[in-house]
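Quick start: what a row looks like.
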Amino acid sequence: MSDLATTDNELGAATPPATLGVLVFVLRYEDLCAADSMALPPLTHDGAGFEIGRASEVRPPAMQGKTFLLPDRFVSRVHARVVRRDGKAFLEDAGSKLGTFVRGERIQGPVALADGDVVEMGQSLFVYRLVDEPTAVRMITRPAGFAFGPTRTLCPELMSLAIDLEHLARSDQPILLLAETGAGKEIAARYVHDKSGRAGPFVAVDCGAIPEHLVEGELFGHRRGAFSGAHEERKGRIRSAEGGTVFLDEIGNLPGSAQASLLRAIQENEVTPVGADRGQHVDVRWIAATNVDVFSEKSGFRADLRERLAGYVAMLPPLRKRREDLGLLVAHLLGRRGVERASITRPAARALFFGDLPGNVREIERTLGSASLLMGDGPIDLRHLSALRARVASEKDEPESEPPGAEVMDEERRYTKRPPREMVEAALFRAKGSQVEAARILGVTDRQLARWMDAFGIPRARKGLSGG
């Protein structure tokens, strides 16, 4: 009997639907180092459901019967319920003291959850994902995540990709990784190398960082006396990876002349050092990565080289598409810096975790790096997010850009009651100080926002930013 079937029986289902919703507990703002993220069992039939409430004592988050218990003192004893009706999962607040938030807004009644929705209860963050049945089975079989590189992943797409890469690892199939900057291309490449069983080293080459006139010598090496200053023979990066893996990072930035030489090396499994008369055989695994669309004719990338490298094309999801991994990533990044305990205020968490994260994992790492040094004995606050503030400031003169987190706000909804202070502060932060823009994010008039600011004692924006 499968794990999914076992879960179905527990929830009273007979036949699971083709698409299932999985609510993932991501992190608690009070304990960023916990790394206790987990996937909750999916609801497989109409009428199935579970409650979310506070654990009576400190313990890891856990599913007990039909209740998910959180060690969160800001969560009510019975805080919210998730129920499946008409093939959809609905989230409803159970009369909690501090409310339940979906996409940054406090819900007033049952809300149908959509793929990627961010949910907050107390100081805890969740993400809802819609997945196919095999992926749901995989997620509940490994509720704490799938090992991927130095950490784990709860992202359905990344879990599936990791399994494919593991199957390919022991072959000689070239792999082309496509991903945005900072999304983890080298981690994926190292994952393949570690699973490959190859005895040789993993050698990473940043193709965009080598001056054009040095590319061939850097890649293929050179003979002694090949040119002025060549006082000794040099192997080059490719021969240095003998028996292992060559990772060609940012291959889209490789000059055209070097592309032709690299094509020959891959085709013939040999490299010709600068100044040599004949090629030398190499046994390496080829993995390339780029954030450039090398499949476009406008890229200028050789089609024949692309076809050689694209034995398998892996598309890594950006971090904004895998927010369910934020808890594991944040704990890992803080742990690398020796931080054993850290918390974050709700406004800072929303500014950091709800945004579009254009720098992906690298942006989170950079931002947390400085924040962990500035926070002292207190929580990470908005003022500690220097890297994020710098990016927001650089976007002030770009009218086309969205404020961080705008895509997770539902602009069609409007508050009928005054929201919590931290929500107003977070909206003002996302709006870069503009009360007009903050009011748009909250779905109210700027006059209503001004009244809320006065009630909370939040200083008004200086003239010119408030919109009058």
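That is the whole record. The first strand starts at residue 19 and ends at 28. DSSP finds 15 helices and 21 strands in the chain.
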